[in-house]
Design a protein that fits this description.
Blueprint (H helix, E strand, L loop, with lengths): L12 E3 L8 E4 L4 E4 L2 E10 L1 E3 L3 E7 L2 E3 L21 E11 L7
Antiparallel strand pairs: 1-3, 2-3, 2-5, 4-8, 6-7, 6-8
């Protein structure tokens, strides 16, 4: 008999940003930070920059899924949505573990 074990880690949580650089951070007028692995449905509006800290992340913004891969979304990097006068509404963030990349975008 073949059994599959599914491990869900809903431990992702909001965290006080302070001066920390290791959290996933959504930048707007009132930045929001997240720590630990998991998936969280959120409503963070007018995000102009996302930094991933030391996390491997993916997110959904304006209805578009931005999946992470082994070479994307490296720490403390402006992600492609960071254009002048362009903001996104982020509705889901996912942290699946520590970063897996060494370069930046």
């Amino acid at each position: 008999m073949n059994h599959t074990t599914l491990s869900i880690k809903p431990n992702i949580n909001a965290a006080p940003c302070g001066n920390r650089t290791d959290f996933l951070k959504l930048w707007n007028d009132n930045p929001a930070c997240f720590a630990n692995q998991g998936i969280l449905n959120i409503n963070v509006y007018t995000v102009y920059r996302i930094t991933t800290g030391n996390n491997y992340v993916s997110f959904i913004a304006d209805g578009i899924n931005y999946p992470g891969n082994g070479n994307s979304y490296c720490p403390n990097t402006n992600l492609p949505l960071s254009y002048p006068y362009y903001w996104m509404d982020v509705t889901q963030v996912s942290i699946t573990g520590p970063r897996r990349c060494q370069s930046t975008l």
